[in-house]
Design brief:
The complex is a heterodimer of chains A (329) and B (103). Helix content of chain A is 22%, strand content 33%. In chain A, 50% of the residues are buried. Chain A starts with a helix and ends with a helix. Chain A has nine helices and 17 strands. Chain A is of the alpha+beta class and 329 residues long. In chain B, α1 crosses α2 and α1 crosses α3. The chains are: A alpha+beta (329), B mainly alpha (103). Chains A and B meet through β16 of A and α1 and α3 of B.
Chain lengths: 329, 103
Amino acid sequence: MLKTYAAARTGVAFFDNRREGRFRISGPDHAALNELVSVDLDLLDPYAGVVGLVTQPDTQLVAIVLILRGEDDFYIFTERERADALHAHLVERLADSGMEVEDLRQSHDWFAIVGPLAQDVMVEAGGEDVLGLPYLSYEDNSRLGCQLFRVGFTGEFEYRFLVPKAHADQLRADLEKAGAASSMIQGDVDALDVLFLEVRFPIHSDVGFAGNLLEAGLHWMINFRKPNLVGGEILNEQKGSLRRRGLMIRLDDAGKAKGGDPLLIEGEEVGVLARVANSPTLGADIGLAYVNADVGWVGVSFDVAGAGGPAVAMGISAPTVLTHSVYTS
Amino acid sequence: MTGITRLSAETVAEKRAALMRRIKASLIERLSLQLEPDEIAEDTTLFGTGLGLDSVDALEVALSIESEFEVPVGDDDINGIRSVNLIADYIAGKQNEMRDADA
């Protein structure tokens, strides 16, 4: 995992994301789909995308999703752990809408290259033109024989490839060849967890420790101005009265704390760690915690009753690392 | 053990919260954001997926910091200011530097 991490932060890594969820939704009217998501699909231009939430009407989270609009369809992607739940939800809720849900896990593979050198690989594989692809958009790329997405959830450059299974081996070989000059490696998808955590990009399991979506800090995935926002009345009530707050923390000792450990002040529990990972860039364990709103702020210190022994944590700002791609962009 | 008391924790938290309110209000006004302060989470990235600001907006963010908080923003510093929380860190750090220089 360390090798993958280093490649993604300083070079480039190839990820086989075929276990992640990927769906194509098509039909004459997308109103029914728009009712299921926290963002306004009417505001999306063709070939542009947005990160949002699919929720139940009571705001229970189904999945964190990347949605991109095509000419007459939408692509929806989600993490592997939520793929089946999202698929079931879409099929059930769109059953009478006239929209069709196509599970692309059966027909297409889903690859990614991530890192500050990802653009170099893309120029080698696809030519200079691919650099003109805007962030959070996609194109049908005939040269690569796939749909090419420019995204990015780790703070680094990232391109993704949705490719028919019959052509997947060829594309993979082409990318490996193009990546050779950049020493691209095969990445371990488990390394993505710490890459996400360092920039506080959320995963679904984070949210389970929070009381609600806003305590999890997911405001930016919600369009509060959207007409008929799913769960809108609840979300608008919640936003001014958070009982807990999501807070990034840095631990003074590595290896002592883990997800589920409580945070204390003067022996009283004031929060809980949702997850902890070692950040190679920072040389320290960092974590995401949910802390009582009156003390859950950057600069506040906490005792951690860690399973590996007591530790001290301090609230810090995210993103916790300044990525190389930021410097070069 | 931190030795921190609840009172001192609440004092740190209140000071940070007050700074956040000023930063958010300043950003909303300067960038004409169609958002209310409590619709912006402190760690939301300013650029890309978060608030969706661009390089032109980055200059406005810098001007907002300079005018509202009277701290200079260097050309190289703007790259490090990636969220509302990091704006607060930057302002607090610069204010400390300026206090130390005056002492």
